[in-house]
Amino acid sequence: MKIILLSGGSGKRLWPLSNDARSKQFLKVLENKNHNLESMVQRVWSQLKQTRLNNSTVIATSKSQVEMIQSQLNGEADLIVEPTRRDTFPAIALAVSYLYTNTGARLDEVVGVLPVDPYVETSFFDRVKDLEMAIQKSESDLALIGVKPTYPSEKYGYIVPEDDSIDSSQVIKVSRFTEKPNENRARELLKQGAMWNCGVFAFRLGYLINLLEEKHLPIHYEELLKQYARLPKISFDYEVVEKAKNIIALQYNGYWKDLGTWNTLTEEMGTNKIGNGIISEDSINTHLINEIDIPVTILGVSNAVIAVSPDGILVSDKEKSPKIKELVSTFNDRPMYEERRWGWYRVLDHVKYNGTQEVLTKKIGIKAGSNLSYQYHLARKETWTVVKGEGVVALNGSLQVVKAGDVLQVEIGDKHAIKATTELEMIEVQSGTEILEEDIVRIFMDWDEIEDYCYSIK
């Protein structure tokens, strides 16, 4: 069985920690069994390892998330990267073409698709394995997992069975789907044996390959990659699931939760305080997540979430917190914090002078043994001040050792890179007529290549 994890899109429901660069699945706010903080994607990957599904799993994602996934999963996962962000049908189609073309998967092989961020027990992934047998023993187009509801939720979609005689150990024939009903309608659906739709489904590889051929779309990965813009910008639910004629489902009776809002996420946090701050004893059921160095003090405020990041500050009643997306939907500022394959950076300041000169100041952290690419810029110069650790700088073909206290000047057009010998932090001040992340011309990514180049021109 092959697994496709969907890690696309961006979100502001967990603003100010989530943004266009860092979606909710990358927020390190959950506690693992060793009481260390981990993200949703790290938790899911760990569970896939426990159920031995990780080696047959690929992650479908967008360009903006590649480095963060590589960083958080230590480069362990195979990634299928969308050339442009579209929707779940194109993303799944691209991943399926990769499995068909590049892994030698058979047309009768079962492919399971699931989101990268479900908050579930590990037994959930054992149930995912059961989809393979369910598909193989049936003539169905699709097999889904439905979660046994614990209350009549208005937040979830429902899978409605053909009848109400449900035995959770057996295959259930699906009659229809109902999207986010009101509470009264949800109660009626529960009486009919309806289940929450958790967005997990499976199909034979050949089913989707045939569908692509019917739509006159390429089935080979490299060709589909080139023609990706031709794929309809539509969800898999609308393009495939709702048109399938024969759908079955398996019921999962364990714990499942969508941690998509601050009130649901804080319910699963192992601590009520992350970062620098104090919460008074009379602040009941209040959570603080603080990503900056300034202390936050909370006094006599209950049932609230206070989230602080370089992108902004949220102070919200927990029950009202799901409305945050509506309020910040117009915020289009650049992300102030990002994780990369080599470490992280945080924007400290961004100023424009007289409309002709920009200055952007970052604090950059580089993991020991990692490096920035050998690159140059067309519109900005940079000043680096090393504040922690040691490393090696490549500057215009020369190598030099740097340590805390050293300052380097990188002019427009200078070819430069840095490798951290130990964990390294530096302050980078960018200045120029226009400051853009896209103003990078990369020459080499690998440090061995950078060293070889520097030695060759001596």
Would you kindly provide a written description of the structure presented here, covering whatever features stand out?
It is a single chain. The chain has 458 residues and is an alpha+beta fold. The chain has three domains: 2-258, Spore Coat Polysaccharide Biosynthesis Protein SpsA, Chain A, CATH 3.90.550.10; 269-320, no CATH class; 340-456, Jelly Rolls, CATH 2.60.120. It is 21% helix and 35% strand. The protein is built from eleven helices and 30 strands. The strands form eight sheets. The chain has a six-stranded antiparallel β-sheet with strand order 20-21-22-29-24-27. Strands 8-11-9-10-12 form a five-stranded mixed beta barrel. The chain has a four-stranded mixed β-sheet with strand order 14-16-18-19. α3 (88-102) packs across α6. The radius of gyration is 25 Å and the shape is globular. Residues 3-268 form the Nucleotidyl transferase domain. Keywords: Isomerase. It comes from Heyndrickxia coagulans.
Number of helices: 11
Helix content: 10-25%
- What name is given to the CATH topology of the largest domain? Spore Coat Polysaccharide Biosynthesis Protein SpsA, Chain A
What is the end-to-end distance?
A: 53 Å
Shape annotation:
globular
Low-confidence stretches: none
Largest sheet: 6 strands, antiparallel
Write the CATH homologous superfamily of the largest domain.
Answer: Spore Coat Polysaccharide Biosynthesis Protein SpsA, Chain A
Mean pLDDT: 91
Looking at the overall shape, the CATH architecture of the largest domain is Alpha-Beta Complex
GO molecular function: isomerase activity; mannose-1-phosphate guanylyltransferase (GTP) activity
Keywords: Isomerase
Domain Mannose-6-phosphate isomerase type II C-terminal: 340-443
Domain Nucleotidyl transferase: 3-268
